[in-house]
Write a structure and sequence with these properties.
By secondary structure, the chain is of the alpha/beta class. It has two domains: 3-183 and 220-250 and 303-321, Rossmann fold; 191-216 and 252-300 and 326-340, Alpha-Beta Complex (UDP-galactose 4-epimerase, domain 1). It has helices spanning 12-23, 41-45, 64-74, 88-93, 95-116, 150-169, 191-203, 224-236, 253-263, 309-315, 323-340; strands at 3-7, 27-32, 54-58, 78-81, 121-127, 173-178, 181-182, 210-212, 218-219, 222-223, 242-245, 251-252, 268-271, 278-281, 287-291. The longest helix is centred in the first third of the chain and has 22 residues, at 95-116. The radius of gyration is 20 Å and the shape is globular. The structure holds NADPH dihydro-nicotinamide-adenine-dinucleotide phosphate and guanosine-5'-diphosphate-rhamnose. Residues 86, 88-89, 127-129, 179-180, 189-191, 194, 212-214, 217, 219, 253, 295, 297, 300-301 line the site of guanosine-5'-diphosphate-rhamnose (GDR). Pfam families: GDP_Man_Dehyd. One of its GO terms (biological process) is 'de novo' GDP-L-fucose biosynthetic process.
Amino acid sequence: MKKAIITGITGQDGAYLAKLLLDKGYVVYGTYRRTSSVNFWRIEELGIAGHENLNLVEYDLTDLSASIRLLQAVEAAEIYNLAAQSFVGVSFEQPVTTAEITGVGVVNLLEAIRIVNPEIRFYQASTSEMFGKVQAIPQVESTPFYPRSPYGVAKLYAHWMTVNYRESYGIFGSSGILFNHESPLRGREFLTRKVSDSIAKIKLGKLDVLELGNLDARRDWGYAKEYVEGMWRMLQADKPDTYVLATNRTETVRDFVTMAGKAVGFDLEWEGRNEEEVGVDLTTGRTLVRVNPRFYRPAEVDLLIGNPEKAKRELGWAPATTLEQLCQMMVEADIRRNECGCSF
Ligand code: NDP
Ligand code: GDR
């Protein structure tokens, strides 16, 4: 049985990928960080906690010796590095921590591969945030990078280190430039989940108003469950490479909120501009959404839209779930969680 290590199994993608690999017959070693209260709610929700082929291993990406020992102990064929300080907003407040985890941490794993077993296949979770102030529309693998946050800069360093280890040492290191991907397992600090959870709470009378930052930002949002399949396909290819995974559709934050409102019967209309803008439910006249500049970022990524043509051609990967379906799925999940008081 093939063994795979997934760093960051407590996160959204780690949980979906663990499920995918277990279903494919892998023995999975999922890493989590020592904290005072570890939370495995995602793998529990997917029904894989306690699976006989799932091993949970304590590990911190910032520790080189731990990285070496992890690889020595597991003898894995594949490593999926999903661990990161992944929240862009926080990266402005904690740029050094973000650089240490999201940037340099990746070199710990690459070094461990070089030292322990250069045959291990390595997946690096790169990001559309590396395109930042975009230099072309849509973005593809060859589009020049221009990151706009400490997170984007750290990820760009990790991306180039992966490419460098590929070219310098022949390591099978693939980098997936993934555009935003969401699901009911998304962390609640990220836009889509904050919206689905808040709209559910407003619908159930548990919240009055949803406060957001920049409503004009445009994102290419896909379904996380489909994106982890793309990660796996990258490591089954004949050679390591860099691939964009995206939907080739972009919508504004405002559009997503309107869509989420529609999923529960709100008819949102937008009035005012900039900090004065509000979202009003036409049926009741109630203001349900307003802007709070607290959620603005010092530098913003205005527009992301990716063309996944290369992944389609070479890996046979393509997204299937529409944004409307994804949004509906997320809102319904949050209605259920809020109704039963088991909100995560
Ligand atoms: P999450 O934030 O949900 O998960 C991140 C994971 O990394 C968590 O399990 C977290 O553990 C772990 N982690 C954080 N710091 C460390 C550390 N020092 N050592 C070990 N583990 C650590 O992210 P997603 O699942 O959404 O994303 C997965 C990866 O893909 C990330 O690298 C992200 O940057 C990248 N990415 C995500 C995209 C998206 O749209 N979701 C798009 C493009 C890239 P803990 O629970 O303890 O915090
Ligand atoms: P992003 O995702 O920064 O694209 O990074 P996020 O969902 O945080 O923001 C998306 C856009 O929405 C705007 N926005 C708000 N965002 C949040 N979180 N909260 C708000 O209240 C709010 N109001 C407006 C943001 O300014 C932004 O433009 C995600 C992460 O998963 C990264 O790890 C990953 O690499 C990229 O996606 C691709």
